[in-house]
Amino acid sequence: MASSDSEPRPLIGLPTYCERTRFGHWDLDSAVLPRTYVEMTERAGGIPVLLPPNGSARPELVHRLDGLVLTGGADIDPSRYGAPAHPASGTRPDRDESEFTLFTLARAVDMPVLAVCRGLQLVNVALGGTLHQHLPDVLGHTGHARTPGVFGVTTVRTLPGSRVAAIAGPEVSAHCHHHQAIDTLATDLVATAHAADGTIEAAEARTGPFLVGVQWHPEENATDLRLMRALVEQATAYGRERAR
Question: Are 190 and 203 in contact (CB under 8 A)?
Fold first, then answer.
């Protein structure tokens, strides 16, 4: 269960973009993230902490967090898994530098991690896996990102006995918008959900602390907080143990 009113709510780190952003009279480079991530974290019982990509993450940052959501966004630089860039790839090296070190530091202290879309891809690459850089080349269709800027709904089947199945059930109506996905799965991970076309839609750690990644966007379904509540529950326990 999420933290009760009698104990501190866990601090959940949410990496952001640095993007040109317009608001009011201003048009500035800003650290931004869709508000749906913030709302999902708050509604699930956590305190959202926005993390701008300011170079390599530092250990003292991780020591102040109780949980981490690796948020969605741009493609991982394919040089990180030994591949040339596909023409359809769009990368953000500043996010890569920050979030790869952030994930490494979080894993080193057994912090619970929920990885979303790009986040799942980052986890797979960080642990030694590779990616399909453009799914239409592999599948022959654009079913996972039908319309740019619009989330489609894909039916996803979860693996019985997995963490993600225990959290989300045997089938998920997943809000998807991705043109990349896992190719070679990292050996430390097990694929725990697939779309009908065989695309890996979730993976999790074989052993160890909570590490669940989903290729879909749970923050886009305001009626389903189960994945985020699972992270908050784990983060609450992690923070409690750390405080002893």
Answer: yes
CB 88 within 8 Å of CB 132: no
**11-15 vs 47-51, strand pairing mode:** parallel
Evaluated on CA atoms 222, 226, 228, 229, the torsion sign reads positive
Which CATH fold would you assign to the domain 11-242?
Answer: Rossmann fold (3.40.50)
Beta carbons within 8 Å of 134's beta carbon, 6+ residues apart = 86, 88, 89, 179, 180
Report the catalytic residues. 117, 217, 219
- Contact present, 199 and 139 (Cβ < 8 Å): yes
Q: Return per-residue pLDDT of the chain as tens, 244 residues.
A: 444 566 789 999 999 999 999 999 999 999 999 999 999 999 999 999 999 999 999 999 999 999 999 999 999 999 999 999 999 999 999 999 999 999 999 999 999 999 999 999 999 999 999 999 999 999 988 889 889 899 999 999 999 999 999 999 999 999 999 999 999 999 999 999 999 999 999 999 999 999 999 999 999 999 999 999 999 999 999 999 988 8
For residue 188, give both structure tokens: 């430390």
What ranges do the domains of the chain cover? 11-242
> In the chain, at which residue ranges do the beta strands (DSSP E only) sit?
11-15, 17-23, 26-32, 47-51, 67-70, 113-116, 131-132, 152-158, 171-176, 181-182, 189-195, 200-205, 211-214
Residue count of the chain, please give it: 244
What whole-number distance in Å separates Cα of residue 62 and Cα of residue 82?
28
CA trace torsion 145, 148, 150, 152 (10° rounding): -10
Q: What pTM value is reported for the model?
A: 0.95
